[in-house]
Amino acid sequence: MKTGRPAVEFENVTVSYTRGNPILRNLSFSIFEGELIFLLGPNGGGKSTVLKTMVGALKPENGVVRLFGVGIEKFRSWWMIGYLPQNAATFFENMPLNVSELLNSTRHRGRGMSPEEALNLVGVEDHERILGMRVTDLSGGMLQKVMTALALINRPRLLLLDEPTVYIDQPGVRSFIQLLQKLHSEWGLTTVIATHDVAAISIFASRVICINREALFDGSIEELTASEQLCSLYGFHVYTLRHGHRWSEK
To answer: Which DSSP string do the residues of 81-92 spell out, in sequence order?
Structure first.
């Protein structure tokens, strides 16, 4: 739902890992507060690069990026942004952090939840045991929950998720979807999800942006799934959406 105020703005943004070989070319779009955006595209098409640019990890070669109306080069309120990167486990291979240390490392004083509250929010009940574990000893599914707790610990206004269901089994996917629905409703959270798990998450996306180095589609999931030719252009299949089961919100 568009409220009139953009949470994210990209204006003719070009991003390159190697100068002269852009992974994003003249990309323009706006994401409005309260929207839940589904970011689709083929592998190597630039989805993860878009999210990395939003959190300031990559600097645009050309163009303008704004967060809540502020140019990203001047943006300082990073507690407002929650980010769940892809392949999070690789970030901690050589870091002897336990879960408590990790969650406290980004907690905004006076605003952030306690580690216990954040873990409870994402469905982790055995707080004491999990908080004392090294991050590198967590299973893939538990690490994904801990990283989601990390992204949410400061009660952000913008949540960026890169392949969030990759390590989660089917019951876990259902719980994850219900959590996002709850936060979207209760917090008014603006959410951007980059994923291939179309059938699981698209049922509650308010808008879809398809990219393959540039913006090629921006509209509703119904418009996208109505065209097999359009879907094949982006390298994914959506026939399961038309005949699949819709999750209950109960």
So the answer is: EEEE-TTGGGGG
CA 139 to chain centre: 21
CA distance 57 to 60: 10
Q: Distance between CA atoms of 56 and 27, rounded to whole angstroms?
A: 16
Looking only at the bridges linking them, the beta strands covering 36-40 and 207-211 are parallel
Q: Which amino acid is at 166?
A: V
Pairing, β 158-162 against β 81-84: parallel
- Residue pair 187/152 in contact (Cβ under 8 Å)? The answer is no
Task: Convert 173-182 to b/e letters by CB count within 10 Å (16 or more is b).
Answer: beebbbbbee
pTM of the model as a whole: 0.87
User: Would the CA dihedral through 66, 71, 77, 83 be positive or negative?
Assistant: positive
Structural domains in the chain plus CATH codes: 6-243 (3.40.50.300)
CA separation for the pair 212, 47 (Å, rounded): 8
Our CA dihedral for 176, 119, 156, 79, rounded to 10 degrees, sits at -140
60-to-30, 99, 201 alpha-carbon distances in Å: 16, 33, 29
Residue pair 192/208 in contact by the 8 Å Cβ criterion: no
Q: Read off the pLDDT of residues 80-102 as tens digits, 9 standing for 90 and up.
A: 999 999 877 677 777 788 999 99
Distance of CA 162 to the CA centre of its chain: 5
- Inter-residue contact 29 to 218 (CB < 8 Å): yes
